[in-house]
Amino acid sequence: MKKDKVTIYDISKKLNISAATVSRALNNNPKISEKTRALVAKTATEMNYKQNRLAQALKNGRTNNVGVIVPYINRSFFSSVIRGIEEELTPQGYHIIICQSHEEAENEIEQLNALLNTQIDGIFMSVSKTTQNTDHIKKAMEEQTPVVFFDRKIDVEGVSSVVLDDFKAGFMATEHLIDQGCKKIAHLSGDINLEIYKNRYEGYKADLQKYDIEYKDELVINTSSKIESGMQAIDELWKLKDKPDAIFSAGDYAALGAIQELKQRGIKIPEEVCVVGFSNEPFTKYMELPITSVDQTPLMMGKIAAQVFLEQVKGDQALSIEKKVVLSPELFIRDSSSRKILNLSDGV
Amino acid sequence: MKKDKVTIYDISKKLNISAATVSRALNNNPKISEKTRALVAKTATEMNYKQNRLAQALKNGRTNNVGVIVPYINRSFFSSVIRGIEEELTPQGYHIIICQSHEEAENEIEQLNALLNTQIDGIFMSVSKTTQNTDHIKKAMEEQTPVVFFDRKIDVEGVSSVVLDDFKAGFMATEHLIDQGCKKIAHLSGDINLEIYKNRYEGYKADLQKYDIEYKDELVINTSSKIESGMQAIDELWKLKDKPDAIFSAGDYAALGAIQELKQRGIKIPEEVCVVGFSNEPFTKYMELPITSVDQTPLMMGKIAAQVFLEQVKGDQALSIEKKVVLSPELFIRDSSSRKILNLSDGV
DNA sequence: TTTGGAAAAAGAAACGTTTCCTCTAAGTAT
DNA sequence: ATACTTAGAGGAAACGTTTCTTTTTCCAAA
User: Which part of the chain is the HTH lacI-type domain (chains A, B) (predicted)?
Assistant: First the structure.
């Protein structure tokens, strides 16, 4: 069906040498004389030879494809991480196959199996919120396919990960709010079963403690990453006698919902209530009232994840050590929490 | 290196039948007796056999991988189209390799060649703004690799496309503004060399004509898809003696910039000036002043592009007809242009 | 002149499928 | 009982590489 491609045999016939020699010449094998190598190279380009990556992959077991599994591709955070991975891996000749789990463990498992089946050289993933079981990950490891977690990990022996220091992020965000003079800081948390949300929460608590501010359970509301969820949280918080003077949300969408609801109630931001979000989604910057948010350095995260992967496959020795990288968050301070002088370090 | 996989030979040995029979049984070839087929199927699952897609691909020339080339992966529009493609193609056993051109023709060519080299079964692409030459597309066609353009196309014989009716979109948007009572409608256009922007512009002009409103060149400003670009456009427009009372922007980011600049100048939206954007980026909905925008039905676009592709590869006959699909835009009317009663059909 | 040995190249198997062709055994028609 | 058909299965080549092993070539040392 497809147009006939030129193979090393065509080259070998034309030059009256063996296909083996052609292959070696093209691969710069030192056993080949410089003369032959040059001749082969020249002829190859002349004949418009293109290596068949399939045959090559079949022979040596490496496809030069890697898979990425994320909950959603159209979340700014994830697409930026993917771009980071791409920037590191494309120059090395890798191709990236992207899959979405839609936050469903079932899909995640399916996608992972499909990737393994398609002979991927490695897998990058951010586990879905509903993932509990680690069997699929172990299966990948058994097949000697390196897995690198980013952002959301799950503990599996031998699996490397690149994550944010979420504890520090929670700590920083809270510290910033306290620095603005806030005393009654509420926290909109995500599902505490996910490490990342747990850590943000712990960072929040730790910073309260540092400043001898009493931790109150009633100020912590579990939210999803939906705008409505943030609105409901405000609804609930404003039923309290002692209302908060700050909101630290573990997600930008919930923060946005909270802000909309607060405005609705005529509450002034940041004068009466300061708000900090999480993820530095693009919209946080574009709002009429730009939202302070924690940046997870997604580009960096992707690049480092890619580097970790490369180390694992380059290291011919099977010493592929489990590597745990933790990145530092950056707080982008914007109007939603700036009671003091205008902060110049606003992200662009 | 990799753990030994079980092959059809292992199955054939175990059952004392030939590998050919195993292959046929697994592929539901009618030449195989029901008994044998069942036995093979059972044994295959028992032995945890997984088909080697590489070997299969090498043999029959199809990889079941398709490539997608977009300018940027983290634009809501593009990631949604990709998701649409994915939803159609994943159930068919395809995998999707995603590449970014970063709006550079050079990258686009490179990525396309890499995809061809990696033996892709088809290519979906939205051409970069800087693409002029069509040689790379022709090359793909020569290699019998179907190409489907979406949104941004370029004319190449035999290449199918799925695009928005941008003329209609421009017409609709303008009509809506006129309907709000606007008489002096400015247009923030993209690069008119790109078909999509040209068509939006033509639609705008056509609607003005329909209502006998004089077209004025000075009301059309060329902008990029940057916020700043929208601000500058307002800057320029407000130097005119006769200032516009509406803005139809061919991009949401420029619309956002325009709104910010208008507010800066104390101009009331929508009372004094109505604004309509294009693309229905998520942020348009989240703004304090939600922005009216044209939705390009990206999910649908992706799905249809996938269907067009499937038709081309399924139709064994080489009759692969060039197919041109044009989708209808939807206008999501929001506060930035609603002078009349609150529109209930606001997108969610 | 022979021999040893390095350098260069050739031969052939292997990767795991699919599929064309051939063969066997059984069933059917004569 | 014989010849003919056909369902079912096997053999082997092919897809395009890579690489292990073997062979050839060539030059210098004995």
Answer: 6-60
A1 → closest Cβ in B73, B117, B144 = B144
Length B37 CA → C23 C1' (Å): 21
Q: How far apart are CA B248 and CA A171, in angstroms?
A: 44
Q: Which of A51-55, B74-78, B158-162 has the lowest mean pLDDT?
A: B74-78
Closest approach of chain A CAs to the CA of B86, in angstroms? 8
- Of the residues A58, A75, A108, A256, the best mutation for testing chain B's interface (the one with the most B CB atoms within 10 Å of its CB) is A58
Chain B: give the shortest CA distance to residue A289, in Å.
Answer: 8
pLDDT more than 90, % of chain A = 77
Residue B17, CB, strand D, below 7 Å: yes
Asked if residue A81 has pLDDT above 90, the reply is yes
Does residue B73 surpass a pLDDT of 50? yes
Name the E strands within A133-245.
Answer: 147-150, 160-164, 185-189, 220-222
Confidence of residue B3 (pLDDT cuts 50, 70, 90): low
The answer to whether A83 contacts B74, with C-beta atoms less than 8 Å apart, is yes
How crowded is residue A30: how many other Cβ atoms within 10 Å of its Cβ? 7
State how far the Cα of A223 lies from the Cα of A34, in Å rounded to an integer.
67
Tell me: pLDDT of B319 over 70. no
Q: Which among A55, A61, A116 has CB closest to B1?
A: A61
From the Cβ of A59, is strand D under 7 Å away? yes
Give per-residue pLDDT as tens, B296-314. Answer: 999 999 999 999 999 988 8
Establish whether the CB of B20 is closer than 7 Å to any nucleic acid atom in strand D.
yes
- The pLDDT tens digits of the residues spanning A179-234 come to 999 999 999 999 998 999 999 999 999 999 999 999 999 999 999 988 999 999 99
Chain B 2-61 contacts with nucleic strand C (CB below 7 A): 4-5, 7-9, 19-20, 23-24, 26-27, 49-52, 55-56, 58-60
Q: How far is A333 from A293, CA to CA, in rounded Å?
A: 7
How far does the CA of B111 sit from the C1' of C9, in Å?
36
Chain A residues whose CB is inside 8 A of the B260 CB are 288
Tell whether the model's pLDDT for residue B2 goes beyond 70: no
Q: Is the peptide bond before A270 cis (omega within 30 degrees of 0)?
A: yes
Coil, helix or strand at residue A33: coil
Q: Which residues pair with B275 in a beta bridge?
A: B247
Query: Which pLDDT belongs to residue B45?
Result: 94
Subunit contact A287:B288, Cβ cutoff 8 A: yes
Predicted confidence at residue A320, as pLDDT, reads 63
Task: Work out the number of other CB atoms within 10 angstroms of the CB of residue A162.
Answer: 27
Read off the pLDDT of each residue in A228-244 and give the average, rounded to a whole number: 96
